[in-house]
Specification:
By secondary structure, the chain is an alpha+beta fold. The protein is 26% helix and 39% strand.
């Protein structure tokens, strides 16, 4: 409670006496960190966004005033133990323009595999810093209680935890910039916290440009940040990163839009800059803000290199096995093609043989018909006494032979009734129409010889038809 009253008293003094002075929020102003030193934004980013193992320096000059205006400097070394854990140690100096915080930072991040492509990453930032007055001229002429300075100037420790759920390339994070803080030295040792909470949503989208630019990606980051004794900030950052260069841009609801770029030399040393343009009502008279980032990448640790060395033979064995399987697959497909072609050729030969056999059958059948027609044409018929017999050379649509005629009709009605009556008797009558005399001839059967026709006629169609029958011949000559 005493610490709270002291801070409240200081805030009232700053607001009333220096109403024209821009009052900054109490955060570290780290909202644009998306590739290097990002563990200051969320402690879990030390595991992947800090590009371990590397040493990085980030400085921010608020409103371009290097000597007098607010500045932030953060330098740290990030070390990767393995794929699931990493840590960093760093130096932080944070100047609000009125107050100064100088100290160190320890960070640890651990990933937990929940499922395939699903990880939960937990991280913790521990800050230990000396807080003091940066600009004593700010208080000149003020009747400031000495107790305020005595309580404010102390060594302070802060704990800032964070969590991040990563699903494939998408992640949602939560960080507490000062979950718990207390003074180690000074008159006030009470534990307090101001609970600056940051929520983030991000996703890495792989981009293929060229092999020379390595694994490129686009990373949009959406965030919302609560500020003690101030309005919540929200913003959007966008990062396009390659192995040779990066480009970024963003917008913060208080600090305004920003844009920056950087380059990477020899895949190890990176340097870049960013400018931010204040759009908040209290910042309209301020100049733009400058950020500079520099980073040196040392590569993997020996343990990670050893893991990589162990992975290389496994990859080689996997490649050999994959090539062997691909070769076997190609050989199997080649054999299948040969067998298919062989089967296709056999099928073609079989079909060819069937066609030849069918053609031979048709030729024999045609020859048989020719022989039969010749035989029919050459038959001599001697008409017997009182025998009804009629003979023509050709008749359209009729096969040569001897037709056993049951009746002849010129009226369709009687013709249909007669055909129906024969069918009712169990017979299968047939008929043909002669255009010569426009009559329908009803016959019971066709025969190849006159002897067969006479035999059927004289036997009353073998006892099946009691009425009169006679023979009609088509020679087919």
């Amino acid at each position: 409670m005493p610490k709270f009253l002291v801070c409240l008293f200081a805030l009232i003094i700053c607001t009333t006496i220096w109403s024209q002075e821009t009052i900054l929020p109490s955060d570290f102003r780290q909202h644009s960190l998306t590739q290097f030193n990002a563990s200051l934004f969320n402690p879990t980013y030390a595991l992947d966004w800090n590009n371990p193992n590397s040493i990085s320096v980030w400085t921010r000059w608020q409103w371009q005033g290097i000597d007098s205006d607010p500045t932030s400097i953060f330098a740290n070394y990030t070390h990767e133990f393995n794929e699931t854990s990493g840590a960093s140690i760093g130096f932080l100096q944070h100047n609000t323009g009125v107050f100064l915080y100088t100290g160190g930072n320890l960070n640890f991040a651990q990933a937990f595999e929940l499922d395939k492509d699903i990880r939960l990453i937990a991280g913790l930032n521990i800050f230990g810093f000396q807080q003091s007055v940066a600009d004593e001229q700010f208080f000149q002429g003020d009747e400031l209680d000495p107790i305020f300075l005595e309580d404010f100037e102390a060594f302070r420790v802060q704990f800032s935890p964070g969590l991040r759920l990563v699903i494939n390339r998408f992640s949602v994070g939560l960080a507490l910039e000062n979950a718990v803080g207390f003074n180690v030295s000074g008159n006030s040792g009470n534990i307090d916290s101001f609970q600056s909470v940051t929520g983030t949503l991000s996703n890495d989208f792989p981009v293929i440009i060229s092999e020379g630019l390595g694994d490129s990606f686009v990373r949009p980051v959406l965030y919302v940040k609560t500020i003690p004794n101030g309005d919540a900030q929200y913003g959007l950052n966008g990062l396009f990163s390659t192995s040779k260069f990066w480009v970024q841009g963003g917008y913060n609801s208080f600090y305004g839009p920003s844009g920056g770029l950087g380059i990477t030399i020899a895949n190890a040393f990176s340097v870049g800059g960013l400018m931010e343009f204040g759009t908040d009502g209290s910042l309209v008279e301020e100049e733009s803000t400058i950020e500079i980032i520099a980073s040196y990448h040392f590569g993997r640790t020996k343990s990670r290199e050893k893991e990589t060395e162990n992975e290389e033979p496994n990859r080689l064995e996997e490649d050999i096995e994959r090539q062997r399987l691909e070769k076997e697959q190609r050989e199997l497909e080649a054999r299948r093609r040969i067998e298919l072609e062989r089967d296709s050729l056999a099928e073609v030969n079989r079909i060819k043989e069937q066609l030849e056999l069918q053609q031979e059958k048709e030729r024999l059948e045609l020859q048989r018909k020719k022989d039969s027609i010749a035989q029919l044409q050459n038959q001599k018929v001697v008409v017997q006494a009182n025998e009804r017999y009629e003979e023509v050379e050709n008749e359209d649509g009729l096969e040569p032979g001897f037709y056993l005629i049951a009746n002849v009709y010129g009226t369709k009605k009687y013709f249909d009734n007669f055909m129906k009556m024969l069918r009712e008797k169990g017979l299968e009558p047939k008929s043909f129409y002669r255009s010569f005399n426009k009559y329908n001839y009803v016959y019971l059967e066709r025969y190849n010889t006159m002897e067969e026709a006479r035999k059927a006629r004289d036997s009353k169609f073998f006892g099946k038809y009691d009425e009169k029958l006679w023979v009609f011949r088509v020679k087919g000559g």
